[in-house]
Amino acid sequence: MKRRDFLCGASCLFAGFALGHFSNKNKQENLFKKEDFYEINGLGGLTVAVSSHCNLNCKNCDVYAPLAKEEFVTYEQFSKDMEKIKELAPDREISFAFMGGEPLLNPDLTKIINKSVELFPNSEKTILTNGILLDKMSDDFWDVVKTSNMDFGITKYPVDFNMEVIEEKAKKYGFKYHYDIVKSNKLYSLKTREVIDENYNETEGFDWSQNILDLKGTQNYIAKRFTCPHRGINVYARGNIYYCYVHAYIKAFIEYFKVDIPITKEDYIKIADVNDIKEIDDFLSTPKPLCRYCKQCHNTCYGGEPLEWGFSKREITEWT
Ligand SMILES: C[S@@+](CC[C@H](N)C(=O)[O-])C[C@H]1O[C@@H](n2cnc3c(N)ncnc32)[C@H](O)[C@@H]1O
Ligand code: SF4
Ligand code: SF4
Question: Given ligand 1 and candidates 62, 105, 207, 317, which is best to mutate, with the most ligand atoms within 8 Å of its CB?
Fold first, then answer.
C-alpha cells in the first residue's frame, strides 16, 4: 500500500453525510446517541508511531513532530500489546505501517518489525521514512526488511539526500520501495537550511498542505465520523489505539503550545484493558470527541491551495 493511502485512504462508507454545526460538546451529545452513528471499521491494520520526534522539521508536519519530545514505542510494550491482539483475534492478519516522526530513529525498530513478522507473518508491512538515516542502518535491519517482505515508502523532500544508497540496498537485499516526492520549486540545504536553488523543480509528486485545528472545539465531530477522509487511520502509540493520526500525535501540539484541548478516555483505547476484540472494533467504529478540535483534514481535501514546503518555525499558525 502506498504511503499516502495511510494518511488519506480511509474507506468512505458514508461519504456525503453531513450535519449542521454545533457550538459545544454537550449540545451535540444531547442530540445524538453515538451508537446511532456506527460505521464498521474493525481492526485490520495499525500505523505504529514508532517515534514521535524527527530529524527533519517540516512546517505543518501532520504529526507535529517538530514540537515533539523524544518518545519511542519500546520493543517490550509493542510485544506485549501485539501478543494480546493476537490472543484476542488469532485469525486476523494485522497490517502495519511503521511511521513517526522518523521511525528510523527508534533503536528497537528491527526487533519491533521482527515481532510483527513473528505474530502476523502474512500481513502487509510498510515503513514510511524521510530516508535520512538509511545509510546508517545495520545489516540486521536490512535482513528483517527483506524477510518481512516490507514495502519501503520514502518521502523525497527537497533537501540534500543520497538516494543511491537505497537503490544499492534494494538490489542487495531485494526489497520493494517507492518514493513520494514533495512538490516544491525550491531546493533547500539540510545542513544550512538555506534555499540553494530557486529553479529546482519536481514534475511529479504530492502537494504539501495543512491540517487545520480548531482551538475552540466547535466542529461537529459526529458528522466528521462519516466525511473525513482521514478517519480510520488507526494509530498505535503509548500502549493505546487511536482512530486517527491527529488523535495519536496531538499531545505534542498541546504540550508545546500549552493549549486546552482535552484528550478524554473516549478518544483512545488501552490494549492492556481490553478483554474482547469487539471492544476495539466498536471503539474504531464510533465518533470521537477529539474531532471537535480538528477543522478539516488537509486543506487541499476541501479545495484549498497547496502550500510551499519549508522548515518549521514552530509557530502555532502552521497548524491553525
Ligand atoms: C508524517 S510522515 C512520517 C514519516 C516520515 N517522517 C516521512 O516524512 O516520510 C508520513 C507522511 O506524511 C506526509 N506529510 C506530513 N505532513 C504533511 C503535510 N503537511 N502535507 C502533506 N503531507 C504531509 C509526509 O510527507 C510523509 O509522506
Ligand atoms: S513530515 Fe517531516 S517533520 Fe514530519 S515526521 Fe516526516 S520528515 Fe519529520
Ligand atoms: S481528527 Fe481531524 S483528521 Fe482526524 S478523523 Fe477527526 S476530523 Fe478527521
Answer: 62
**What pLDDT is recorded for position 119?**
97
* Ligand 2 centroid to residue 32 C-alpha, Å: 37
What's at 104, amino acid-wise?
L
List the single range of 136-140, 255-259, 273-277 with lowest mean pLDDT.
136-140
pLDDT interval class at 290 (50, 70, 90): very high
Counting ligand 3 atoms within 8 A of each CB, the residue from 297, 298, 300, 320 with the most, and so the one to mutate, is: 297
Is the predicted pLDDT of residue 16 greater than 50, yes or no? no
CA of 224 to the centre of ligand 3 (A): 7
pTM (2 decimals)?
0.88
74 is in which domain, residue-wise?
3-308
Residue 314 lies in a domain: no
d(CA 274, CA 279): 7
Q: Which ligand is nearest to the CA of 309?
A: 1
- CB atoms under 10 Å from CB of 304, counted, come to 14
Confidence of residue 46 (pLDDT cuts 50, 70, 90): very high
Check if 294 has its Cβ closer than 6 Å to any atom of ligand 3.
yes
| Rg (alpha carbons) of the chain, rounded to whole number | 20
Residue 317 covered by a domain:
no
Quick one: which of 280, 192, 292, 183 has its CA closest to 240? Answer: 280
Please report whether residue 98 resides in a domain. yes
- Ligand 3 centroid–CA 17 distance in Å is 15
Residue 27: strand, helix, or coil: helix
Domain-located, residue 111? yes
User: Is 228 close to ligand 3, i.e. is its CB under 6 Å away?
Assistant: yes
Peptide bond into 101 cis (omega under 30): yes
| pLDDT bucket at 299, cuts 50 / 70 / 90 | confident
In 15-100, beta strands by DSSP E: 45-49, 95-99
99 lines ligand 3 (CB under 6 A): no
CATH number at residue 37: 3.20.20.70
Q: How many domains does the chain have?
A: 1
